[in-house]
Amino acid sequence: MSDKLRVLIVDDSSVSRMMVKNQLLSQQPDWTVVEAANGSEALARAAEAAPDLITLDLNMPEMDGLEAAVKLHEAHPQARIAIVTANIQDSMRQRVQSLGILFVAMVDKPINEAGIRKILAGL
Amino acid sequence: MIVGYQLSDLQRETLAEVFNIAMGRAAKAMSNIVNEEVLLSIPQIRMVPRSEASSLLGGPEQRVYSITQTLDGEFHADAILILPQARSMDLVRLMLGSPQQLELVTELEREALTEIGNIILNACIGTVTNLLEGQFSISLPVLQSGLCGDIIESHAARQSEEDVVLLLQIDFTVEKHSINGHLAFVQTVSSFQALLARIDRFIEKAAQG
After folding, report:
1. Longest distance between any two alpha carbons in chain A, whole Å
2. Cis check: omega of the bond before A110, within 30 degrees of 0
3. What is the ipTM of this complex?
4. With an 8 Å Cβ cutoff, are B209 and A90 in contact?
5. Phi-psi region of B154 (alpha: psi -120 to 50; beta: other; left: phi over 0)
6. pLDDT of B78-103, one tens digit each?
7. How far is CA B107 from the centre of its chain?
8. Is A31 at the interface with chain B, CB within 8 A?
9. How far apart are CA A40 and CA B158, in angstroms?
């Protein structure tokens, strides 16, 4: 993927956003990153930035990642969404799949190089 | 807030995130035991007088089982799984699978609960210590039965004279069977600096990518 993509990183933990951002930029230094700390903020940021890729945490206060995924996908169908989560239960995987959105990838926290590669491979 | 033991926002949320990841692993282990989804709350971090900790963990007067493993090393903490006794038999039944004779379940209850605790606590503690890269010895699980207040009090009292503890807490629910409980890390403030040093290192590494 040679285009310079715009990425929205959504996570209530700033340290987790930092990890996703650093790992991503180390593999794609030219990409632009914006951040949001919860689902509602993500919707606002996405409206401004029109991201190509969104990385989304699930366990967040206010609006969780599942609800945010549906709303983000509705508002920005062109944006690809990757789930980055600590909730690695099969039931959560199934629930994510049942949303009917084609996600780029679902990777476990903490994010690492392999996780980012999995996301990039899904684009 | 106690002077001298303040967490910066970044330290607090890093600690919460480490705990969140750890509890995510533990919930998967737990959902494998009960064959149901385990719902998790957002992690809470509080510095509280130890007498107040039990009110945050279901209430001092609630009859509970607790399973505890103690971490000893750079810092000292008790990882405690708290299960209200009212529904603990249901948890054991789910673990054992097919409907068992009540007598047999009762006989196995303590052993089964200890094993549930062992699996969940190990998943959680293992992830915390891996992420923070500390060297710790971890005790075998100890099952206690009694009032939540007495149990928490006895843990904190055994550790030190200090009146304040750092309480990390996640509540979990197996919704389909109305089973709920708490997983808590209780740490005395005496080893607080060692924990902070580990958190700072984690943040530093995260910043390096």
Report:
1. 36
2. yes
3. 0.75
4. no
5. alpha
6. 999 999 998 888 888 887 776 666 67
7. 25
8. no
9. 45
